[in-house]
Amino acid sequence: MSEDKNIIKSDKTKVAITDEVAIHISDMNKWFGNFHVLRDINLEVKRGERIVVCGPSGSGKSTLIRCINRLEEHQKGSIIVDGTELTTDLKNIDKIRSEVGMVFQHFNLFPHLTTLENCTLAPIWVRETPEKEASEIAMEMLEKVKIPEQAHKYPGQLSGGQQQRVAIARSLCMKPRIMLFDEVTSALDPEMIKEVLDTMIQLAEEGMTMICVTHEMGFARQVANRVIFMDEGQIVEQNEPEEFFNNPKSDRTKLFLSQILGH
Amino acid sequence: MTKIAYVREKGIPPSPPPLTEVGIIRWVRQNLFSSWFNGILTLFSLYFIILILADFIPWAWGGHWQTKSLRECLDLDPNVACFSVLTARWKQLLFGLYPAEEYWRPTLTFILLLLSIVPILVPKYLKFFWFSAIYPGLAIWLLWGGSFWSVAIVYIGLIFGFATYVILSSKFLKTTSMALSASIVLTVLFYLFFSSLLVRFLSFLLPINLPFVDSLQLGGFTLSIVVGVSGIVASFPIGILLALGRQSNLPVIKMICVGFIEFIRGVPLITLLFVASVLLNYFLPPGTNFDIVLRVVIMVTLFSAAYMAEVIRGGLAGLPLGQHEASASLGLTYWQSQRLVIMPQALKISIPGIVNTFIGLFKDTTLVSIISLRDPVGLASTIRADSKWNGIYWELYIAIGLMFFVFCFGMSQYSQYLERKLKTDN
Ligand SMILES: Nc1ncnc2c1ncn2[C@@H]1O[C@H](COP(=O)(O)OP(=O)(O)OP(=O)(O)O)[C@@H](O)[C@H]1O
Ligand SMILES: [Mg+2]
User: Fold this and answer.
1) CB-CB neighbors (< 8 A) of A154 in chain B
2) Is the CB of A66 under 6 A from ligand 1?
3) How confident is the model at residue B2 (pLDDT cuts 50, 70, 90)?
């Protein structure tokens, strides 16, 4: 345990050099009823930083990133996103949600709207962008994820990989400053995983602040500034990807890595 | 040892299927005689259909249309229908006790009703929705009469409120909520203090009046449609709100909605109608005249809103949680995400149940005959009370049934069309 804390500390001092803070989480705790899902989470994400979160199933990875845009409510500690603290104030929540994009494991596209309408919905109603301008932005984003030709199809007519890229485009249309990805490739077939990861790598190269929950270790090595390992609701270890994979410090990390890399 | 390698040397040209596998023969075989048990069922059903038709067709076909009374019919031929009652009383079945020289009013109201639902049913004509919006006021004025301005003032007030909101929010007040509350207050003040004066002034300038018709004179199919359509239009939004309230995180709202829904579902409609016709008078201050048709409409609306809420709740439950999360994560507010994401999908799932509730509501309007309003079923008794038609049942009820069938079948067909259309959409 003491070993883990040291690593966190050393990392903190290292990133403290860079300028702006995108997300600041301190002593955050969350319970589901009596179940203590997240325990004393401390995390600071700099602007432009790319973080990969991994850990065994049920360790609280999803819950953690869902707390960042208030899909889940935390009970103790503080979360400050983009300088705004998450409180029960609905105005703050809506503001943060429009600044933070989120992509889900099961896409969650709106099936009754076309691809283009999926992308323009939030800009039109939340940002009050004129419809024409919103469509232009949407087409631009769909081009970025390489499916402009699917603009007028319904989600049900697209493959899984295409749907997930539409979901990414939909988030990007809000011009978010931070993107959260929750196991966005784990419901996809292998050949589709690549097209989605490529999109995410491209985003990373453009300097987007990203938190990705994923078990794609190749992706983590390639784009992450930092890998965070969670277990039982705690941040157990975090480090630069090379160091994290080649030289894990904690026994639980070693066990986890051996399980996902071993077979 | 058999040879495994094989090469086809000559292709087989396509040929038509055997005769027993096409057309009517195939259909009959597959659907009516697919097994000996089905065959027997088919023959039995045919036998009963023929038995009934053999009695019904001569009875209906040879029916009398021009006699003066049931007695006359029976003297001519007691074994055939006596539709003369329809010839003599069809106006009453359609309009109740509405003054005969004013029949054009309910007729026009009905034609305009058909026009006003077009923009709602056919998306292509949505730009004419303004007509659907002014229709309710127009219908009330046409049916009940009185001064045009006393109905128009409601709309004038709304326009006034909207105009003040636009002006206030653009010119003077910073926040929209402040402008909204200010314009609501002004509108209420307008209705309270200024409207009656304005009505008198406008009536003086340009008197447009129709003879006043009392609610008790409203009857027949006119009454069914008035109660049915008002109930349908009003119960739909209330049902949506109740369904949302039932899922609310706020305990008080949830409790009120659940309590209301369960109470209404636990009480027969007849009881509610009796409350409307008798009991309400005890609670209202003496001397107030709370229109009976309005009271009935309110009860029917509340009744079907409770059922509507349950139907829509089913649709809401069918949506994955991810839809709520996705729309929330994009920054849509609760009401935006309900309106733009959740409801379009939930309502689509619930179309069959919603239309079912509508049809039920429309047919339940016949229950108002119990509180002695003269809907078609109530009129049937009135007509029988006339000594000329004493004892006539079938002919009247067949006619009434047919009219209801046309409406309900229409609704059902539209809902099926809508389902098919939405299915191909995505
Ligand atoms: N709404 C909820 N109510 C109660 N318990 C919950 C709820 N959501 C999640 N949990 C529990 O909280 C724990 C953490 O869940 P979470 O989804 O964050 O895990 P995860 O690390 O994302 O796992 P996975 O890799 O399977 O997605 C799990 O034990 C889960 O059962
Ligand atoms: Mg998860």
Assistant:
1) 425-426
2) no
3) low
